[in-house]
Specification:
heterodimer, A: alpha/beta, Rossmann fold, Alpha-Beta Plaits, 2 domains, four-stranded antiparallel β-sheet, 12 helices, elongated, B: mainly alpha, binds adenosine-5'-diphosphate, binds magnesium ion
Chain lengths: ~350, ~260
């Protein structure tokens, strides 16, 4: 049986004044699948979501959500989807329950069922006891959980999650992962999520699209993506007294010992190799011949970070944007407290 | 397309929010009371001569001022209520509405209705207070005063929504309040008669919905009118319809870009 396509995107493009935020993006998402956009800050993830959920008009291209065109049938699209935005969109002066209730009525959930549904969903995200408290007293994690519950209230065909665990502590992140996996298991809901955490993409997604500068660089299951790279990844940290790290790397490639190298940071190199055990002794030989001292060697099976490095020459983790984002969120929080 | 349920929840939200914010509730009462007591009582003693009474169309100053302060309360509350759309933009709730499968016109109408009820509640409290300070006011004028207040509120919450939909950040809020709030208040005839004002100010007065609200309320409560009650009512209805249409038009075009 053919899998049903619930999201079809063709050459979707968004230009802002100066930049092309999303550049001819095409992909499909199938029913019951968790599909993820993995990419650094500014890659165009949120902009893509904004177009798919009909809040922004694409500059070019087209997409169908649940069979409805985002350009010509926006209100049918809106009925088909639930959205959890990157920044919170709850009313902080209302209680969790009231936020849910407003949402339910707006989406035409029958009144008879509404109460039960709210109770059940608040229980699902473990906020049952906090339903009657104003949202301004919630923590960041509680707000995100409330928003997930709210996004599910009208039983959407597709749930959009924009960076569902951004800025949350590890325990809360793990919890939210559990809810998401639970949803897939119990209701077979189709989920489109974005993230810049590789562990999140790897843990949650059936298929991942790696996106950078508005372009999709690769699409596949986490395994498929990692297989693209080869077998092992070896990190080598060198003391750069004699020669720059790059010279060592080039020599190694020249000798045919590794398939590819990347400079991770000033004096750390990563090599993609067939077999780490045979490669590592040879690295020391080459280093000796160049009179370079090796400080540290680590090897691992490739991660999505290595895939990203392989595709872009840059690392995904330790993004500068990370702390900027955090600072921005903090400033906003403080600002909120002061003005309201 | 008008959906009752959308109107209902949007109105519900505005009212709930207002009742939650105790400081807003108190603040909204204290400010007009200060005007009545200090401004009102202060000028009353200065204007106690028969000559002064003529200026105020035969009314003592407190009776002249009271309908104005009631309308001022409603005006300020509804205008600020509309402007809070900018807070919804800043703090995200607007996106929740924009992405919902509801008619934008209905959500504007609901919001305006909610703000109107909130403003009327505040106005009514002040209206009751004025009867203690100006005992000669007519109780029979209350219903028409409330109607005038409702129309004023509807117009100004719509204007607020329209402006806020166009604003990009909350930074402009203070400036906006200074540039809009005071000129509209002072050109409305709430504090002094319009008869001998400079022409440009009169012009401003005639395009100001508040002027008609103040005049209609004053006529209902004291029998004194500077325009004509029927003209007031017609102007108020017309303005309310025009303003809410503009707000709805602008909000319908609102995106998050
Ligand atoms: N409303 C906007 N106007 C102008 N540029 C924008 C706007 N929204 C996003 N951008 C730019 O588009 C690019 C992609 O942004 P975004 O989609 O938010 O990325 P991500 O969600 O992957 O972090 C960024 O360079 C960002 O600065
Ligand atoms: Mg984003």
């Amino acid at each position: 049986m053919a899998r049903r396509e619930v999201i079809v995107v063709e050459n979707l493009t968004k230009k802002f004044e100066k930049i092309v935020a999303v550049n001819k993006v095409s992909f499909k998402v199938f029913k019951g699948e968790i599909f993820g956009f993995l990419g650094p800050n500014g890659a165009g993830k949120t902009t893509t979501i904004n177009m798919l959920i009909t809040l922004m008009k694409p500059t070019a291209g087209e997409a169908w959500i649940n069979g409805y065109s985002i350009l010509r049938e926006p209100s049918m699209v809106r009925k088909s989807i639930g959205v959890v935005f990157q920044d919170s969109t709850v009313d902080r002066y209302l209680t969790g329950w009231e936020n849910m209730w407003i949402h339910g009525v707006a989406y035409g959930v029958p009144r008879r069922e509404l109460k039960n549904k709210i109770t059940r969903l608040l229980r699902f995200v473990e906020l049952e006891e906090y339903g009657n408290i104003q949202v301004k007293n919630y923590s960041g994690g509680m707000i995100r959980r409330l928003e997930i519950a709210r996004g599910l209230l009208h039983e959407p065909e597709i749930l959009f999650l924009d960076e569902p665990t951004l800025g949350l502590d590890p325990q809360t992140r793990a919890k939210i992962w559990d809810y998401i996996l639970d949803l897939k298991k119990k209701s077979g809901m189709t989920i489109f999520l974005t993230t810049h955490y590789m562990d999140e993409a790897e843990k949650l997604c059936d298929r991942i699209a790696i996106i950078d500068h508005g372009r999709i660089l690769a699409i596949g299951s986490p395994e498929e993506l990692k297989n693209v790279i080869g077998r092992d990844v070896v990190y080598v940290k060198v003391k750069e007294d004699a020669v720059p790290a790059k010279v060592l790397a080039e020599k190694i490639i020249e000798d045919g010992l590794a398939l590819e190298f990347n400079i991770v940071s000033g004096n750390t190199l990563s090599f993609i190799v067939e077999d780490a055990y045979r490669f590592i002794p040879k690295v020391f030989d080459v280093a000796n011949s160049l009179k370079t001292i090796i400080l540290e060697v680590k090897y691992s099976k490739p991660t999505l970070n290595d895939v990203f490095l392989h595709l872009t020459g840059r690392e995904l983790r330790r993004e500068e944007g990370d702390w900027k984002d955090t600072v921005r969120t903090r400033i906003r929080m403080r600002f909120r407290r002061r003005t309201l | 397309m008008i959906e009752a349920r959308t109107i209902y929840i949007m109105a519900y939200r505005q009212i709930k929010r207002f009742l939650r914010a105790k400081s807003r509730l108190i603040g909204s009462i204290v400010n007009p009371v200060m005007w009545l007591v200090f401004f009102g009582l202060g000028w009353s003693s200065a204007f106690s001569s028969p000559m002064a009474k003529m200026v105020f169309h035969g009314l003592d100053y407190m009776s002249y001022l009271s309908p104005g302060v009631v309308m001022m309360t409603i005006f300020t509350a509804s205008f600020i209520g509309g402007i809070t759309v900018i807070w919804d933009k800043e703090f995200g709730f607007l996106k929740e509405i924009l992405v919902a499968p509801v008619s934008r016109t209905a959500s504007i109408l609901g919001r305006a209705l909610g703000d109107m009820l909130v403003a009327l509640l505040q106005g009514t409290i002040i209206l009751i207070a004025t009867f203690y300070l100006a005992p000669s006011l007519k109780l029979s004028g209350i219903p028409l005063t409330i109607l005038a207040g409702a129309l004023v509120a509807f117009s100004f919450t719509s204007i607020g929504i329209a402006i806020a939909s166009k604003m990009r950040s909350i930074e402009g809020f203070q400036i906006l309040m200074s540039f809009v709030n005071l000129p509209l208040l002072f050109s409305s005839g709430a504090f002094y008669p319009l008869d001998n004002l400079p022409e440009w100010m009169k012009l401003l007065a005639y395009v100001n919905p508040l002027t008609y609200g103040v005049d209609l309320a004053r006529w209902s409560l004291t029998g004194v009118s500077q325009i004509t009650p029927s003209v007031d009512l017609a102007a108020l209805i017309l303005l309310a319809i025009v303003m809410v249409s503009i707000a709805s038009y602008i909000f319908n075009k609102a995106t998050i870009e």
